[in-house]
């Protein structure tokens, strides 16, 4: 099995690069103690940030042996063990990469530990009845874990909330799907784990100083996709698990039924690679195969988990994804959003300017390669659909555009993301943009419209700070050391403060002083002594575009196919503007209407 690795440019998404925050006191007799009834945990006090931290708290029983592919169960009673140390990060769940990705993208799997249903809590010292952030990590439902440290984010928010980071079953362990799994186990076990963690928060977060009535559920990429699924869960039923929703780059790949050809194929290959096929045909592997998987050695299962991801299909895609289970996911998410069946009192929706990188083919240079991309990613679309894509994305023009100097688009004027970005131009950029819109930007738009049409407070933003590829915003959000090139202190503070304000007060609007960084030459829309960031409505569909200007431009070379320009130096200032979504990027809203109309054929 390949070891888990990730190049430095992806360190924002590579949570293995994130360690514990500095100056944390060693947990000894002085560490904060919490009694959860089933266990006693002693954490650590973080002197630098003034936070009590607990890492590696069990929220469910180990999902091993007969509990594989079953509902998560309550944590075991461990009081007999005495006080448990909660100062180390929990073990990662088994990892499975995106299959066939180029080596420079680095989304490789690796061995983990099936006993991985843990969470981390970060609480201001002396916290009482504070709002709560529950963060669900991304990684294509197959990678990463609770490795992001929100301490600086909590600092920027004035210690106004408690943060909880959760882990959940990944890859085949969390998202194996077939009629056999549906009959003998549970589909979407990873989503059920997340639901269990949200129930844990309701029951226990008050003991850490949090208010269970004010929970914001949030995530990035597949974590945001998970958040979307929870907002839609059980046909949008409000179970009182959260009141606010924050999604960053929500990942919505096709959502199949468990008996569709693709999930069945992956299941059958998993059975084969795990050594559970025997002399039985794949079609009839049935109950015996499932029972074999439940009893199999973890190494065999983990290697099968990675083998399916690494060898099946087109690169840049994850094999193990949520499916329609008739419960959490009852049908098409796009259709359900159109019907307004969604839980949550308010929503904050964000996307990045270059979402198509790094999970899209970076080597498309002619029509043949473009058509191969469309066929591999959208094989169920008909000829009319494909012609419409060619028209909407100006493919003939993209093929003539050629390779030019890369630069960021303004979004509201000049060259658009159809043909130009800070990473690519021409047909390559068209491919990046198709992937960005169909999988991230348009699902974000549909969620925005669903909340807005219900009359619920809704805010929309785009993170445009170069390079603004998918996951780049995590470096600003979590104040990561590596992967933070070009993120000024003023920008980071403003961004973290906006997110904190949404969690703490229900609105991301912040003071003019923080938004501008106190600099008179910044370019930030203001209304009195506050940032001007109006709510999104159908009549006035406005978003905040976040960037910087000034400073010194330098080129960062990522690979032989990817590079970008960053700004640095004391002259960098915040440059925000409010833009109309209807005209953004030469008609992205119209293109999102196309993808929504094609949802049943994709399907999502």
Helix content: 25-40%
Placed side by side, the strands forming the largest sheet appear as 3-4-6-8-7-9-10-11-12-15-18
**Given this structure, which CATH class of the largest domain is correct?**
Alpha Beta
The CATH homology group name of the largest domain: Alpha/Beta hydrolase fold, catalytic domain
Global mean pLDDT: 90
Uncertain residue ranges: 1-28, 279-285
Class by alpha and beta content: alpha/beta
Strand content: 15-25%
The CATH topology assignment of the largest domain is: Rossmann fold
Distance between the termini: 32 Å
* Radius of gyration (Å): 23 Å
- Count of individual helical segments: 17
Number of domains: 2
Number of strands: 18
Using the alpha-carbon principal axes, give the shape.
globular
Main sheet specs = 11 strands, mixed
Structure overview:
This protein has two domains: 8-258 and 321-344, Alpha/Beta hydrolase fold, catalytic domain (Rossmann fold, 3-Layer(aba) Sandwich); 351-484 and 512-601, no CATH class. Mean pLDDT is 90; it is low at 1-28 and 279-285. The chain has 604 residues and is of the alpha/beta class. α6 (261-273) crosses α8, α12 (395-401) crosses α13 (426-453) and α13 (426-453) packs across α17. The protein is built from 17 helices and 18 strands. The strands form four sheets. Strands 3-4-6-8-7-9-10-11-12-15-18 form an eleven-stranded mixed sheet, sandwiched between helices. A three-stranded mixed sheet has the order 1-2-5, with no helix packed on it. Strands 13-14 form a two-stranded antiparallel ribbon. It is globular. The chain has helices at residues 151-156, 171-175, 179-184, 189-204, 222-236, 261-273, 286-295, 298-311, 333-338, 367-377, 383-392, 395-401, 426-453, 473-477, 489-505, 512-516, 588-597, and strands spanning 33-35, 40-42, 44-46, 51-58, 83-85, 118-124, 130-136, 162-166, 210-220, 244-248, 346-352, 458-463, 526-527, 530-531, 542-549, 552-557, 563-568, 573-580. A hairpin with a 4-residue loop joins β3 (44-46) and β4 (51-58). The longest helix has 28 residues, at 426-453.
């Amino acid at each position: 099995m390949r070891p888990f690795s990730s190049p430095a440019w992806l360190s924002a998404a590579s949570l293995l690069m994130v360690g514990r925050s500095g100056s944390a006191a060693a947990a000894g007799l002085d560490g904060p103690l919490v009694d959860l009834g089933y266990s006693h945990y002693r954490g650590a006090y973080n002197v630098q940030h003034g936070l009590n931290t607990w890492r590696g708290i069990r929220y469910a029983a180990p999902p091993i042996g007969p509990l594989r592919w079953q509902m998560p169960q309550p944590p075991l009673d461990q009081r007999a063990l005495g006080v448990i140390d909660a100062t180390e990060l929990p073990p990662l769940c088994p990892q499975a990469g995106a299959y066939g990705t180029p080596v420079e993208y680095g989304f490789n799997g690796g061995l983990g530990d099936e006993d991985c249903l843990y969470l981390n809590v970060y609480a201001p010292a002396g916290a009482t009845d504070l709002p709560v952030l529950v963060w669900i990590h991304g990684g294509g439902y197959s990678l990463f874990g609770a490795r992001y440290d929100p301490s600086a984010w909590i600092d920027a928010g004035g210690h106004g909330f408690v943060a909880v980071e959760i882990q959940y079953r990944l890859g085949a362990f969390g998202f194996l799907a077939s009629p056999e799994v549906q009959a003998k186990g549970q589909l979407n076990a990873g989503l059920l784990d997340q639901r269990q963690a949200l129930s844990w928060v309701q029951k226990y977060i008050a003991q850490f100083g949090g208010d269970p009535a004010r929970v914001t559920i949030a995530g990035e990429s597949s974590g945001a996709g998970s958040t979307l699924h929870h907002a839609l869960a059980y046909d949008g039923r409000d179970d009182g698990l959260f009141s606010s929703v924050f999604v960053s780059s929500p990942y919505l790949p096709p959502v199949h039924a468990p008996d569709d050809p693709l999930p069945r194929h992956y299941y059958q290959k998993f059975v084969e690679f795990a050594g559970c096929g025997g002399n039985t045909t794949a079609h009839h592997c049935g109950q015996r195969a499932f029972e074999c998987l439940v009893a199999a050695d973890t190494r065999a299962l983990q290697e099968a988990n990675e083998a399916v991801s690494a060898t099946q299909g087109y690169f840049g895609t994850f094999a193990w994804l949520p499916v329609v289970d008739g419960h959490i996911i009852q049908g098409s998410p796009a259709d359900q959003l159109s019907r307004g069946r969604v839980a949550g009192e308010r929503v904050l929706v964000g996307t990045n300017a270059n979402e198509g990188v790094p999970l899209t083919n970076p080597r498309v240079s002619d029509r043949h390669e473009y058509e191969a991309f469309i066929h591999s990613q959208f094989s169920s679309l008909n000829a009319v659909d494909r012609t419409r894509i060619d028209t909407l994305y100006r493919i003939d023009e993209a093929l003539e555009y050629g390779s030019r100097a890369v630069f960021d688009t303004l979004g509201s004027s000049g060259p658009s993301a159809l043909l130009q970005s800070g990473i690519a131009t021409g047909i390559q950029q068209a491919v990046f943009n198709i992937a960005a819109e169909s999988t991230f930007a348009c699902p974000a738009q549909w969620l925005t419209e669903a909340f807005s049409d219900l009359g619920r407070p809704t805010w929309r933003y785009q993170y445009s700070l170069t390079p603004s590829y998918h996951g780049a915003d995590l470096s600003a959000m979590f104040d990561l050391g590596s992967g933070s090139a070009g993120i000024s202190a003023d920008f980071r503070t403003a961004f973290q403060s906006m997110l904190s304000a949404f969690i703490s007060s229900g609105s991301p609007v912040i003071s003019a002083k923080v938004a501008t960084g106190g600099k008179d030459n910044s370019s930030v829309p203001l209304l009195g002594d506050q940032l001007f960031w109006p709510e999104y409505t159908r009549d006035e569909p406005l978003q905040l575009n976040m960037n910087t200007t000034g400073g010194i431009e330098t080129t960062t070379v990522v690979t032989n196919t990817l590079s970008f320009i960053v700004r640095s130096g004391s002259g960098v200032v915040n440059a925000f503007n409010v833009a109309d979504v209807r005209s953004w990027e030469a008609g992205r809203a119209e293109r999102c209407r196309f993808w929504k109309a094609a949802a049943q054929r994709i399907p999502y």
